[in-house]
Sequence to fold (318 residues):
Amino acid sequence: MTRTRATIALGSNLGNRLTQLRNGLAGLRELGHVEAVSSLYETDPVGGPRQGRYLNAVVLIETDLGPDTLLEGLQRIEGGSDRTRDVHWGPRTLDLDLITYGDRRISEPHLVVPHPRAHERRFVLAPLAEVAPDARLSDGSTPGEAIAHTLDQEIERWGGAWPEEAPRMGKEATWWVIGQFGLLTAWLVVVVLTTDPVRTLLLGVGALVALGGVALGVGAVSSFGTRITPSPQPLEGSLLVDAGVYRLVRHPMYGAVFLSTFGVAVAAGSITGVVVSLVILGFLRLKSGREERILGIVVDGYEQYRVRVRQRLIPWIW
Fold:
């Protein structure tokens, strides 16, 4: 019996995206022999309504199924993940696209192979180049040749074997923590050295801001509990927290750090301390943005939570 190598692109931006892709991979193992699995990639949605980011990968399988039967199998796997097609380019639990089927070229109303838009999509080309670098796309190019024309499309590659383990930030997480505590130390030194006791008029305003930061921090700890950590790498088994102050802001503890440092600097009359606290704010925004990348993968429902709760650091403000 003739067996054919086919490449299938997987994508998800609803529910636990990593679980959806793993379920899709398990379904593909029933349609043929999985020869290679690409790295995990993440990309912002293109077109359609406002929605969360996508996780993408490409799988190379060897199958004895014909292209029509294989397509039916892919649609059956999608249906098992409650895939709907109500909104064009809308969010989806699991998307399985047949990219190539051997060197066959098929043009039917229900199936076009190679995929007619694969050569325009970096989130397909990058993982495809890993598992099938010699594949020929609809325009005759290979993935490596086509990707040179899509470098304006931003994607992020996550390390690790995603079918078995959650992606990890590695040493990067440690450097974020070191940077945070380094800036806080610099702020403390600057405030102590530059405090002007004459500027007591600012004491009340600064104290109120600092107390607001303390209250925000207490609310964060009481809602999150003992699994709170300064590292952007979430602890194993972390679950989505959508209660208390987390209903208003996604990273209240970082907002608390900024408000507290800013308020104390204002109360102390330290202009330089205010400037350093603003630097801390910028750093924490960068850190929280990076942290949300990993949270969106390992915490079930985080992408939908991120879309729903708009403020990142300070309730009602930012």
Residues 26 and 77 are 9 Å apart (CA to CA). The chain has a mean pLDDT of 88. The chain has nine helices and eight strands. Strands lie at 4-12, 33-37, 40-43, 54-63, 95-101, 106-108, 111-113, 155-158.
